[in-house]
């Protein structure tokens, strides 16, 4: 079989054909894939409840809020210790203490009970594995072994990471909680 030469201007290089298929409203061709063409060309879809919503959501705002509330209520409850960070699903904000929460509620004009709090879990640094990080940078002569100074540095750093448990950040955890509004008594307010 010989290698055939086909020049750019040759009729053999390309031929004009009539093609039919689905084209979305934004001009993209999808061949026989009507569903993709329709989805890419639409701006809104119908929610399972019948309401119309933007296509990047799978449900309308009302249904999304209902699902979020159901998911929140299904979480196990735990009393807040007053020290861990809290995340409010409603405010989409982290809070460190009750004073900050009550100030926020006063400023925003919302009830503390409406904020749906989740107890946060600390995010700690993870131990490192330099052999994994540098595996593709080691020479073949090294047989996958790091130099001694890096092994020693890795051991020291991992020891510090294990022993000094200071969180890098916090993230919403698996327990919902509530914050009780503190009522100031006459005694606390200095009125006798």
Structural description of this entry:
- The longest helix has 16 residues, at 148-163.
- By secondary structure, this protein is α+β, with helices and mostly antiparallel strands.
- It is built from five helices and six strands.
- It starts with 33 loop residues before the first helix and ends in a 15-residue tail after the last strand.
- The chain has a domain at 20-74.
- A hairpin with a 4-residue loop joins strand 3 and strand 4 (93-95).
- The strands form two sheets. A four-stranded antiparallel beta sheet has the order 4-3-5-6, with helices on one face. A two-stranded antiparallel sheet has the order 1-2.
- It has helices at residues 34-41, 61-74, 98-108, 130-133, 148-163, and strands at 44-46, 52-54, 86-88, 93-95, 117-123, 169-177.
- 28% of the residues lie in helices and 15% in strands.
């Amino acid at each position: 079989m010989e290698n055939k030469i086909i020049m750019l201007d040759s009729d053999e290089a390309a031929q004009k054909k009539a093609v039919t298929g689905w084209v979305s409203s934004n001009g993209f061709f999808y061949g026989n894939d009507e569903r993709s063409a329709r989805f890419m060309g639409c701006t809104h879809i119908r929610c399972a409840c019948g309401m119309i919503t933007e296509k990047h959501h799978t449900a309308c705002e009302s249904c999304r809020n209902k699902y979020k509330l159901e998911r929140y209520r299904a979480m196990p409850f735990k009393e807040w210790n007053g020290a861990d960070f809290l995340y409010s699903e409603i405010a989409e904000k982290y809070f460190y203490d009750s004073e900050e929460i009550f100030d926020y509620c006063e400023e925003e004009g919302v009830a503390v009970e409406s904020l749906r709090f989740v107890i946060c879990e600390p995010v700690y640094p993870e131990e490192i594995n330099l052999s994994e990080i540098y595996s593709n940078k080691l020479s073949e002569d090294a047989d996958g072994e790091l130099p001694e100074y890096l092994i020693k540095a890795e051991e020291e750093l991992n020891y510090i990471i294990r022993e000094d448990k200071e969180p890098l950040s916090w993230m919403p955890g698996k327990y919902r909680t509530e914050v009780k509004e503190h009522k100031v008594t006459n005694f606390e307010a200095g009125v006798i």
